[in-house]
Fold each of these.
Amino acid sequence: MRGTVVQSTGNFYDVMLSDERIIICRLKGKFRLDNKKQTNPIAVGDFVMVEADEQNNYSIYEILPRNNYIVRSDIHKKEYKHVIAANIDQTVVIASLRQPRTAHGFIDRVLLTSEVYGIPAKVIFNKHDLYIEKDNNLLQELMYGYNEAGYESFSTSVMANENLEKLHAIFENKCTLITGLSGVGKSSLVNSIFPNLNLRVGEISKYSEKGLHTTTFAHMYRLNKNSFIIDTPGIKEFGLVDIDAYEVGHYFPEIRKEMHNCKFNDCMHINEDGCAIKKLLEEGKFSPTRYISYVTFHEEIKAAKKW
Ligand code: GDP
Ligand code: ZN
């Protein structure tokens, strides 16, 4: 039987079968030995093959090829990689400019990580009903920058019922990795567009907070027949992308698109002569916050040699 891993606790795996039944499985022994540098051979989102023994105990005997997966270094053993989730169709960052305010650096870090793993991403600004004029000015600026870079971005409000249908549509028939600071309204949004799920307010974040202190695992929720969300345990996984400083520009689509116009092939877009990116920035054609994030990530990776 074929199924999808929806939850993992390290020893046991909840696997959803095609008839939507969820069964608890163990792993066949051989998986444990395979990849010594990975703390978990199977992650949420993995497509697996399952069999039952005479006592009706289920076990996973095969993992099917992954379309993609995201990893982070193990909290305790840096050389070990922890697979957070697999087979992700898109990342949706839920941000807010009020209660709590999401720093643009947080959003851009998630976008960088998604880009490195080849996962499309979208940026949603929730709690729009709470924004005052200056927030709205910033909102326009940020959304413009993201849309220009190719990341669909719009505002929502659970309170004012703003753009909830539009948000619903982007979750349809996809497996979405959802992330955002605690309290931005992830559970409320998901509840309002998928009432059957009936998440407690704060449920997604509570789960995430736990993840900051312990090695917990992502959890997958089924929204409807072909739509799933995966919420990730905390934000740590978005701090450790395994790339070199000179590569950062390749993972900013709006830089990637223009970098061939820079005078030097190896331009880092920081203080080189004839830099096309700096020129766009001066002309007001490049998002200043995106540029700040670019420089920050570039410096950070350079300082650490590697994250
Ligand atoms: P999560 O931690 O990201 O899952 O956030 P929750 O869904 O638990 O929401 C945190 C708080 O924000 C709750 O009190 C919600 O009622 C409130 N909230 C969620 N969305 C909105 C919104 O669009 N506008 C306002 N004003 N409050 C919201
Ligand atoms: Zn340049």
Amino acid sequence: MSAECVFCKIARGEMGELLYEDDLSAAFADLNPQAPVHILVIPKVHAESLAHVEDEKLLGRLLAVANKLARERDLNGYRVVINTGKDGGQTVPHLHVHLLGGRTFGWPPG
Ligand code: AMP
Ligand code: ZN
């Protein structure tokens, strides 16, 4: 884990509040929510982006957790987003899955 990475600190319980955690992942509310439900699901181990991870068990877990958290919230559909790299719009360099719900989303995304 990186000492300076904010999402590593959150995953370690040193900052903010976790909504969920297991052996591989943690989830918490986005600081600047873009929908009534906006949760970030991250790996506990530091990984810069989706492009830096090949562990299929870990990647599968992140999606399974997003699905579980969505199901618990009884959403009428939801969106999962993984911004990756500069052109992908990623601003925090620790892989995170956005779970967005509670409103209708447009397509294509901006
Ligand atoms: P992205 O643009 O995909 O890298 O998304 C980064 C997300 O992290 C944004 O939605 C931010 O609002 C969110 N964020 C940044 N810092 C924090 C923090 N300390 N706690 C919770 N969410 C954060
Ligand atoms: Zn990190």
